[in-house]
Amino acid sequence: MTDAVPPEIRSRLDDPFRELAGPLAGARRLSFTVAASERISPAVHEVMLTAPELDGFGYQPGQDVMLLVAAEGARPVRRRYTIRSLDRGAPALRLHIVRHAGGPGERWVRSARPGDRIEGIGPRGKITISPGADWHLFLGDESAMPAIFAMTEALPGDADATLVIEVPGPADEQELLAPARTRVSWLHRLGRPAGDRALLTAEAAEVELPPGAGHAYVLGEARVVLAVREVLAARGLPPGQISAKAYWGRGRANAGHGEPPRDA
Ligand SMILES: Cc1cc2nc3c(=O)[nH]c(=O)nc-3n(C[C@H](O)[C@H](O)[C@H](O)COP(=O)(O)OP(=O)(O)OC[C@H]3O[C@@H](n4cnc5c(N)ncnc54)[C@H](O)[C@@H]3O)c2cc1C
User: Fold this and answer.
1) Hey, what domains does the chain have and what are their CATH numbers?
2) Hey, which of 60, 98, 141 would you mutate to test ligand 1's pocket, going by the most ligand atoms within 8 Å of its Cβ?
3) In terms of pTM, does the model score above 0.70?
């Protein structure tokens, strides 16, 4: 049983999140224990996390938890992962974390074993389903798959959703069971590096934008998110109908508070 950051180090951290105030006033500190940890496809690792504070825990589909994955001297290193689902019976959170070439978050999940402990803060995040949209269009890479699937599953049966998801290859496709009318397009990188804009921008230029006031959700690598948002804007989608969020920056580590570098 390993602590991602042992309590004696945690108490000495210069921690901007010592108090949960401002935008985090509604979030809880969660004392997670790993209940299960398994690589479910070449690129995706699933962890189940339990915590006493999950009793009565509420969140919106698309929201995330921030994990204290490491400490660098007195500096906490946190990473954000979308809540794929919550098993209220256990209770346990399910996260799907990308296995990439390596960073503190990836190193933590690679070594995570049942019984390991890690501190979390959540729920976080502002992007969730836009109520009343005539249709929903989701574009993202495998890091966005948990958010895209969680939000799509939450749509009612008479909603229309189009999902465009870039993954390394067919082995990383996942099955989606959702009540909404859903079309999924899988884009395969087939050996090309993650974080290249070509596939998602090409699809954003071609994908059908049905009549009515729909909403697009664009999540993933920072420069790709920017480029896809520009393509959709050029096709006439107003800013208020696009929710875009950079999850990671190609070739650049996220900051200690979990966000990609601003200029990524
Ligand atoms: C709100 C929010 C929700 C998120 N939800 C999820 C989620 O559910 N699942 C998930 O896997 N990620 C998610 N992310 C992204 C995740 O927090 C980042 O990918 C984070 O950078 C990973 O941290 P790390 O320590 O492994 O790598 P870092 O230290 O940040 O980066 C180290 C190196 O790894 C590269 N890298 C980082 N992420 C990836 C990637 N996905 N693919 C390829 N290379 C990468 C970087 O370019 C860098 O070169 C989310 C991010 C945010 C902001």
Assistant:
1) 7-124 (2.40.30.10), 136-248 (3.40.50.80)
2) 98
3) yes
